[in-house]
Amino acid sequence: MKLPVAAISAEATVRLIPTAYYKPPVMRALVDDAQDLAILAAIESLTSQRLIAEKTGLAGLDPRELLFRAWGQTHVNAAFAYTRPEGNRFNDGSRGAWYAGFEDLTAIAEVAYHRTRELERIDFFEDEATYQALLAGFMGDFHDLSSAHSDAPWLSPDTPVAYPEGQALARLMRGQGARGFIYPSVRRRGGTCLVAFEPHLVQNVRPGARWKMVWDGSRDYTVTTA
């Protein structure tokens, strides 16, 4: 498939992660020295998808693809190691990807949509969550879906339609050497998103703002800095 290519130089794309994943290791408070910490880390590695990926790889992820000795490596590697069974818009359940918005509000809208879906499943709209923004730079050629017609199936707001179509498109384009896509946000009009297919493309990861989202009885939510 022939898709337009855009050369980008983006210094600060935005990805949000729960603050629970942005803390020193919980086990550190349980031990007195590095030797004991290493023992607990070995136990954790038996069930940690990220650590398993880094050590032996996963079905769709070779450990040689992952980052090591770089700030933010755990967050980048986790993005590729952990997946939903049904995948996301441009990745299936065998391999993750790095998704980000070009603006804070776009990243917020995308994350809030998925959180709201979870609340819909239990029909309970009382919740709050705090997210840490991770900023990352990208440079190079990415296939650009911005000119795609609004009825392109992979840009559908209906996830049962969009995900299988988007995943098929991503497999096809990865096979042709694609690095990732730039695409219009489906959850925020006027916003722009990026998906990177390879860990090494994620550059200069560092912390950004922290955001608190609150649901108080309805699908609508409020967001403030935390």
Describe the structure.
- With 226 residues, the chain is of the alpha+beta class.
- The chain has one domain (5-225).
- It is 28% helix and 29% strand.
- The chain contains five helices and seven strands; from the N terminus they run E-H-H-H-E-H-E-H-E-E-E-E.
- Strands 1, 2, 3, 4, 5, 6 and 7 form a seven-stranded mixed beta sheet that branches.
- Helix 2 (49-55) crosses helix 3 (73-81).
Oligomeric status: single chain
> What's the number of structural domains?
1
User: In DSSP terms, counting alpha (H) and pi (I) runs of 4 or more, how many helices?
Assistant: 5
Number of strands: 7
Beta-strand content estimate: 25-35%
Shape: globular
Low-confidence stretches: none
What is the alpha-carbon Rg in Å? 18 Å
Ends: how far apart?
Answer: 44 Å
Helix % is: 25-40%
How do the SSEs run, as a string of H and E? Answer: EHHHEHEHEEEE
Q: Give the class from helix and strand content and strand pairing.
A: alpha+beta
Mean pLDDT: 89
Q: Biggest sheet: strands, sense, closure?
A: 7 strands, mixed
Short description:
With 226 residues, the protein is α+β, with helices and mostly antiparallel strands. The chain is built from five helices and seven strands.
Topology (SSEs and partners):
Blueprint: E1 5-18, H1 34-44, H2 49-55, H3 73-81, E2 98-101, H4 104-122, E3 126-144, H5 159-175, E4 180-184, E5 192-196, E6 203-216, E7 221-225
Parallel strand pairs: 3-4
Antiparallel strand pairs: 1-3, 2-5, 3-6, 4-5, 6-7
Helix pairs in contact: 2-3
